[in-house]
Amino acid sequence: MALRNPISQLYKHASRSSIPKAAATSTRHASSKHSQCQLRSMATVVPPVTQDATSSKGPTAMVFMNMGGPSTTDEVGGFLSRLFADADLIPLGRLQSYIGPLISSRRTPKIKRQYAAIGGGSPIRKWSEYQSSEMCKLLDQISPETAPHKPYVAFRYADPLTEEMYTNLLKDGFGGGKGGRAVAFTQYPQYSCSTTGSSLNELWKWRNRLEGKGATGLDPAGSITWSVIDRWPVHPGLVEAFARNVETQLATYPEESRKDVVLLFSAHSLPMSVVNRGDTYPAEVAATVYAVMQRLGFSNPYRLCWQSQVGPSAWLGAQTSDTVQEYVKKGQTDLILIPIAFTSDHIETLFELDQEVIHEAGHPGVKRAESLNDSRVFIEALADVAVNHLRSGESCSRQMGLRCQGCKSERCLEQKKFFVGQENLLSVR
């Protein structure tokens, strides 16, 4: 049963009739520029956390995990090198160490131009740091027993990398004989071995390297106690935040034709080899889509499609770009793209959807719902997910402990055993 708190009550009583229709922004680029300026003005400096806090269970490190993105064009090469070296995300077989660098080097000039086109870099770090900081402020209020809450960001392929985050944890007084609790909070609401699983594999690797095992093979005394928020695809606050952004964009269409606008939910695709292995991601994305449509009262026709396919192998479809082109050819030109698996803007929204898919559609009726970015409803949803996790006493979901049917990865097995086993340590805190 979900634990009750003031934030969860907000979503319980929310209704379609109570949600205002916000006016549409004049252009997406102006909105993006305004948001980035606003974000810089909202940035705060968070002091280090020490282990002499007065709360009964604090302090608590809240670690946002995500793919990340290069903040400048100079970082694109390193970002792509790490991305194509990750067999969890892009499985290239036994020749991964050869093919990965080859693909990344060939793609770097093109990807640099794409990042230049959206302002010279990805805003995902700014949004992640803002979201985590704002969430921690709320947690300090609604969960004083685990306060103070210290925000961290750990990206899989860009700065700040997991190694840097873990080093900062130790510098700030967590672990290293001092104990302390940290929560790995995935910012992929829908679980995939390629995304959340890869991030957890990396976190487990650096945990072992930087905290290690004692002479007995057991965890050393005073190491960090970890727990994981590994998925949250149908959380009411997440659904509400998506639904409000859809309603805002729907309000820009003439009232007489609004109900006929097609809603196209778009999520990052997966190789079919990963899907056929038993990955839960497609089902969890579909669950999010259905929950959002349920909240909207199934007001419009809708479809789920997939974007960002890379390489010649088979990927999960239908592709977003193909879907838009086909509907426009058939005369269905009022379409709203909804990035349903992303929690902030980055290259897949600002360039792939805005500057490729929508531009190539060539019709003003094809638009995109805003990303979650600085949505207050979304920030409150994050805090609600976190506080319920902190009070649950669980180290991870029951789903996380179950491997995919076709999984052969020993690293995945050991990582899961580690995080599931942390529940024994949580029970004594």
Automatic annotation (TrEMBL):
One of its GO terms (molecular function) is ferrochelatase activity. Belongs to the ferrochelatase family. Catalyzes the ferrous insertion into protoporphyrin IX. It catalyses: heme b + 2 H(+) = protoporphyrin IX + Fe(2+). Keywords: Heme biosynthesis, Iron, Lyase, Membrane, Mitochondrion, Mitochondrion inner membrane, Porphyrin biosynthesis, Transit peptide. GO terms for biological process: heme biosynthetic process. It is a peripheral membrane protein. Pfam families: Ferrochelatase. The keyword Membrane applies. NCBIfam families: hemH. The gene is HEM15. It is an enzyme of class 4 (lyase). Pathway: Porphyrin-containing compound metabolism; protoheme biosynthesis; protoheme from protoporphyrin-IX: step 1/1. It is found in: Mitochondrion inner membrane. This is Ferrochelatase. One of its GO terms (cellular component) is mitochondrial inner membrane. Its EC number is 4.98.1.1. Its main location: mitochondrion.
